[in-house]
């Protein structure tokens, strides 16, 4: 158990819908990262937050957005969902910036039908 | 961006065998991690090793940062070692997350 929690574990929804994925980092960690794992793209970095502020952006679509709240939990919002958004979404956390070891949550498996 | 290449892509071994997995990267890094993704999809931290050598039980890893590669050694393989092994790096000096290789798919047969 990494100490990073994610909910829900599974999510099935239809095209065009909007969903929210939630992540709680390890106790004491200030950075939260979101990654997407799909069959064609592999594991890709989406976005990083540090202590409530956006720190870095990767290959995140404009339809996707995230935020980190004062209690340091984070949410990833995915809207206007397409079939190609079906993937495993991971949250990770680290004590500070990305040079520090990142610990991954169990992931949320999103299926868009 | 930084390129991360892992080899071999697939590896099938008998229980008890030893193996070496390689990760080459194209730029200087200040974070390098090895993960094991088990059949349930969970990413398990194996090593945080931007440079040097570490050992943890039957597993060990070495990163030669100046030559831009890292090696993961698995000795006396067990069936529970099966899964996909990922190397992930963060390029030095940039604000970014981890860049993952495509992984090595390891199957340990009893």
Explain what this protein looks like in three dimensions.
The complex is a heterodimer of chains A (113) and B (110). Chain A is an all-beta fold and 113 residues long. In chain A, 0% of the residues lie in helices and 53% in strands. Chain A contains no helices and eleven strands. Chain A has strands spanning 5-7, 10-13, 19-24, 31-38, 42-50, 53-57, 64-68, 74-78, 87-94, 103-104, 108-112. In chain A, strands 2, 4, 5, 6, 9, 10 and 11 form a seven-stranded mixed sheet that branches. Chain A has a four-stranded antiparallel sheet with strand order 1-3-8-7, with no helix packed on it. Chain A starts with a strand and ends with a strand. The model of chain A has no long low-confidence stretch (mean pLDDT 96). By secondary structure, chain B is mostly beta strands. Chain B is 0% helix and 59% strand. In chain B, the strands form two sheets. In chain B, strands 2, 4, 5, 9, 10 and 11 form a six-stranded mixed sheet that branches. Chain B has a five-stranded antiparallel sheet with strand order 1-3-8-7-6, with no helix packed on it. In chain B, strand 9 and strand 10 form a beta hairpin. The termini of chain B are far apart. The model of chain B has no long low-confidence stretch (mean pLDDT 95). The chains are: A mainly beta (113), B mainly beta (110). The interface between A and B is medium-sized, with 26 and 22 residues.
């Amino acid at each position: 158990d990494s100490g990073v929690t994610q909910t829900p574990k599974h999510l099935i929804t239809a095209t065009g819908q909007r969903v929210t994925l939630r992540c709680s980092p390890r106790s004491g960690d200030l950075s939260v990262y979101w990654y997407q794992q799909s069959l064609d793209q592999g594991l890709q970095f989406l976005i990083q937050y540090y202590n409530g502020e956006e720190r870095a952006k990767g290959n995140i679509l404009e339809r996707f957005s995230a935020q980190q709240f004062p209690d340091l939990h984070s949410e990833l919002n995915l809207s206007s969902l397409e079939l190609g958004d079906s993937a495993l979404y991971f949250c990770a956390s680290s004590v500070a910036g990305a040079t520090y070891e990142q610990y991954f949550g169990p992931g949320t498996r999103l299926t868009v039908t | 961006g930084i390129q991360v290449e892992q080899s071999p892509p697939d590896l099938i071994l008998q229980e008890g065998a030893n193996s070496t997995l390689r990760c080459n990267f194209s730029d200087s890094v200040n974070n390098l991690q090895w993960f094991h993704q088990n059949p349930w999809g969970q990413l398990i931290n194996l090593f945080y090793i931007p440079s040097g050598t570490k050992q943890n039980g039957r597993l060990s890893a070495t990163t030669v940062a100046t030559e831009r590669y890292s090696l993961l050694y698995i000795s006396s393989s067990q069936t529970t070692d099966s899964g996909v092994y990922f190397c992930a790096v963060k390029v030095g000096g940039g604000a970014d997350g981890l860049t993952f290789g495509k992984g090595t798919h390891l199957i340990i047969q009893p």
